[in-house]
Write a structure and sequence with these properties.
By secondary structure, the protein is mainly β. The protein has a domain at 2-148 and 234-280: Beta-galactosidase, Chain A, domain 5. The chain is built from one helix and 21 strands. It has one helix at residues 96-99, and strands spanning 2-5, 9-13, 20-25, 28-29, 57-60, 63-66, 79-84, 87-93, 106-115, 118-127, 133-135, 141-144, 152-168, 171-187, 198-200, 207-212, 215-221, 227-231, 238-244, 264-266, 271-280. The strands form five sheets. It has a nine-stranded antiparallel beta sheet with strand order 7-8-9-10-21-17-16-13-14, with no helix packed on it. Strands 1-2-3-4 form a four-stranded antiparallel beta sheet, with no helix packed on it. It has a four-stranded antiparallel beta sheet with strand order 12-19-18-15, with no helix packed on it. The longest helix is centred in the middle third of the chain and has 4 residues, at 96-99. The two termini are 27 Å apart. The mean pLDDT is 93.
Amino acid sequence: MIELNDGTLSVKIKERGAELSSVVLGGREYIWQGDEKIWSGQCPVLFPICGKLRDGTYRYGGRTYSMELHGFAREKIFSVKQVSPQEAVFTICDDEQTRAQYPFSFVFSVTYTLQGGELKITYSVYNRGNEPMWFNFGSHESYRTEGQEGVWTLEWSEREDLVLRDLSPNGISDSHTLLRENTKEVCIEQSLFVQDSLVFDGLRSREVTLKCEGQPAVQIRFPGFDYLVLWKMPNAPYLSIEPWNGLPDRENTSGELSEKYGIRRLGGGELCAMTHFIRFFEFTPRSGK
């Protein structure tokens, strides 16, 4: 476990998956701590895909490959370089295991930095091969939301017509559902998650704030990320707020990796990096939790 501290925020990150495990401010833990009876995960890093492949497979170069939900990064042990008490860089490279399911030569890094009262998380992928590679990455931070239903809300930085991508057992549908019209805030209720995840497309906002009884608790800025996903298990006391730069397979996918909706192309010797920013606020719920 790697620890960062700037005198205000205390952060812990696991070497397995480069997974954020704890953020403490003012004695309060902000990150879901996992529960085997509900969901043992916390904040998995998604690479080289976001979501699932139809039938768990894709084709590339005339071969068929298998890959599990969200890719393999979350199960890999990352090497770590602690740059300072406020920054650490976690890195994996391709190996025999990754090439069996993803035939590209890469370096993938996750950098955690405490700066100006924020936690910066930067994903970067470098193509160390000569041919183009195809990839996505995304976050899956899960925040504690204890209390009665209706206590927690999510506020967008812009007024939005909140349009959801419809989901089916076979993937993302081409149809959409209007969740809310001309709004800036949504109450986090279990009824929102009857289809599992909420996948927002076409948002103007690149900042959302999780609030408890009207008080800011966590603010996430995600410039450059195309999609925002919300997810929680039934009646679970957390909310996952997930900036992604790709999507699960469509229902009618061709199965070719290069044709996957939202997939990104990276030329040989090229680097792609994106950063999202998380700010934590002290708050006092009326419930006292």
